[in-house]
Amino acid sequence: MSSTTAPATQLADATGPAPVLSARHISKRFGGVQALDDVSLDLIPGEVHCLAGENGCGKSTLIKMISGAERPDSGEIEVDGIVHTRMNTTSAIQSGIQVIYQDFSLFGNLTVAENIVLTSAVAAKRKLYRVKDAREKAQAIVDELQLDLDLNADVENLSVADRQLTAICRALVSDARVIIMDEPTTALTHSEVEHLFTVVERLRARGVALVFVSHKLQEVLAISQRLTIMRSGRVVISGPSADFDRRSIARHMTGSDVEESRRVPDFDQTATPALEVRGLTLPGAFRDVSFQVGKGEILGVTGLLGSGRTELAESVFGVLPAKSGTIAIDGKPVRVRNIQDAVAAGIGYVPEDRLTQGLFLEKPIADNIIAASFNEHRNRWKLLDRKRIWGTITHFFDQLKIHAPHPNRAVRTLSGGNAQRVVLAKWLATDPKVLILNGPTVGVDVGSKAQILDLLRIQAERGMAVVIISDDVNELVACCHRVLVVAHGQITHELVADQVTEDSIQESMAV
Amino acid sequence: MQLLRKFRGANNEGSLALILLVVVLGMSLLNPVFFSVNTAFSILRAATVPMILALAVLLVIISGGIDVSFPVVAIGSAYTAVTICLKTGFDPGLPAIFGMAIVIGGLLGLVNGFVIAKFRLPTLIVTLGTQGIFFGAMLVYVGTRYYPTLPDSMAALSAVNVVELTTSAGRAYLHVLVLLSIAIALIIWAVLKYTMFGRSLYAIGGDAEGARRAGIRVVRTQLWIYVLVGMVAAIGGVAYVVMSRSANPQDLVGGELDIIAAVVLGGASIFGGRGSVLGTVLGVLLIQVINNSLLLVGVPSAWLRAAVGLLLILGVGAQAVSARRSAQRIHTVDTGEAVRLELEKVS
Quick check: is A26 in a domain? Predict the structure, then answer.
């Protein structure tokens, strides 16, 4: 497989099964941007086709074309021999194309059974609704996929993984033959991802063609049979997954080699630790947790979802104040009863879900950057000092390489990587002694990820203590001096220096 | 525990029923006169119009919107229908008067729905605006006169009772329009539970964007909601005019918050997606029982409004607290030791 750019069509092997869907020569312009340029894609029944590429490479736009949410300027989509020059959402669903968005588009206030059945009932233009029919139909699908889902539960009470399974069931009820999943593994932990993959195998056995849009290279390689990489609106390369490895995928995605190897800056191990936690306990979440982070140290914390790692971080930051235990900053004990206490003590926290917890989406980037540091930007009359604010904003724009036309743009318009940099800038502006980051590169592309990790290394070199909570083993290995593994609300392993490898982390997480 | 949760119901209907029962029993102990068929009938009678209006509002609230123009729509359609009959001196009979009011109410609702769906404006703002417009237009074009006598067919209905009993406390009457409110409750219950339209309301209230992605025609459904609300409100308006035996264009207006309070007390979420007919019925009854019983116990009527306000905050507050509790339960660790600790704490 040569790495030529934009092969016009990559048809399936003549001997293989016919594609259920072929997108051919799709192009689309948004204003001055060529979002898609002559893109073609074939989906084969029973295959997982992974669509990879950095944020803004056009993969979401391509999916919108296939699902009928947007119309292409030119090109056609053929489903089962029927050629559509454009789809609309209804005709896409009728053709058996289902998209599972990152937010799943489920109704939290309705039961699992109803969520599974509703879309197909709407599509069938049904007028009446029967609870019993819905339950039976949903049960059939759940049984077929051998899932353990409570059909009567309200979806808002489900875990992310169960919501995703509900969305998959919903797609199947509508006789989906093409299921497109946007970042399906982002919010899942290892065991949940494994479970998802067994479900995916069952879907393949049914002859469903799947499309995975993903940033996680490891999982891409594990699950997909075919891989298409896009960059700047074009298909860079497409072929069997077996032909790729992590390095080559990253290279095709970014167009250059990405430095991913382990690189940890030195730090003074003898100095007083920046953060010291002793016997921290929060009933129901974690108990008797003790650890410390040195000045300039990058500490990784990992564990399954529900292991208590997020609660631990939130306790240190005062979101869920701990019931007992002590926290000391620079050797001085501090009381953290709420977020204000934590911020005053010099702790910063980049939350797991930056969209809802870390950013004011409708507000300008500039306002977001200084949102946590108003006190640092006051003049002597306690009023905001515009000049200093502007200084801070331009400083972080340059330092963090935030790509945006202007600081006055709403954060909503930014890609995942850039939005994450804004959250980071917000906390760096408070000049914290300890910065805790929960999933700092979730939903961020490879290139941005490397840059964000570099930024953290730089902050550590300047003496900041950095705590990274992450599922991404690779990222932990790349930049953490030490890694703590949390399970059942307790630290079960501590991996130091050379012990920090992908294998050792995964081994100690296996329960 | 499971049984208890089931009894509590999806929207706290069980707790509400329990509170209602406690209030009734408590009042009966305080004042034995309260516990009588007469009181029951008069509460049902007083609850009739609020019930119909509350059921109308329930539809909008489930869909995630709010309508504050419904009292004006209700009295406006009924008053207009009565005015037409009286001015022309022609009494077309009850079904036609109801029909006329329903058409007017539906049209007014269409105005609401059109503006909201077409221009995607906040429902509160739009209905606040149309409330004023409808009210002003009625006073200018229909009239401001108070009609002490109704067309014959309506006046006749005013005096019809389904049950008449003689009890120790005197004669007790159950007005025929109570049946109307029960019928409307049943119809709306069936619509919400057994039709795709009803389920769409919950879906739209839960997540409008998700509903659109699921193929539900959100704009058209919204339009229908407001038309329907207008129509049901008009029925409530006619019922009100019949029961008060006179037509006054200033009546009902300003009472919207009490009705919305009853619906919210009945477990409907002001953010949409949640609510039930049973809860709304209980919410309306509870407010009526409290109104009635406080008077009987001798509490000054000025305290009635305070009582309703207090009830609302307590009721909604209790729900919010229990929701936060269950959210916290999800938040905590779901494996091994921690669960055991949690369980020990609970038991």
Answer: yes
Nearest C-alpha of chain A: how many angstroms from B12?
14
In b/e form, how buried is each residue of B150-189, taking b as 16+ CB within 10 angstroms?
bbebbeebbeebeeeeeeeeeebbbbbbbebbeebbeebb
Query: Which CATH number, 1.10.3470, 1.10.8, 3.30.450, 3.40.1630, labels domain B2-346?
Result: 1.10.3470
Check: complex ipTM more than 0.95: no
In A, which residues are within 8 Å of B274 by CB distance?
Answer: 109
Q: Rounded to two decimals, what is the model's pTM?
A: 0.74
Contacts of A108 in chain B (CB under 8 A): 206-207, 273
Residue A26, domain CATH: 3.40.50.300
Domain holding A219, by residue range, is 1-12+20-96+209-258
**Interatomic CA distance for residues B50 and A426, integer angstroms:** 51
- Is A82 a member of any domain? yes
Q: What is the nearest CA distance from B62 to chain A, expressed in angstroms?
A: 11
Interchain contact, B196 vs A122, CB within 8 Å:
yes
Query: Beta strand B170-175 with A482-487: parallel, antiparallel or unpaired?
Result: unpaired
Do B203 and A110 meet the contact criterion of CB atoms below 8 Å apart? yes
Q: For B233-281, write each residue's pLDDT tens digit.
A: 999 999 999 998 888 888 888 888 889 989 988 888 888 888 899 999 9
| Contacts with B203 from chain A: Cβ below 8 Å | 107, 110, 118
A67 falls within a domain: yes
Would you say residue A433 lies in a domain?
A: no
Query: Considering only alpha carbons, which residue of chain A is nearest residue B63?
Result: A109
Contact A129 B326 (CB under 8 A): no
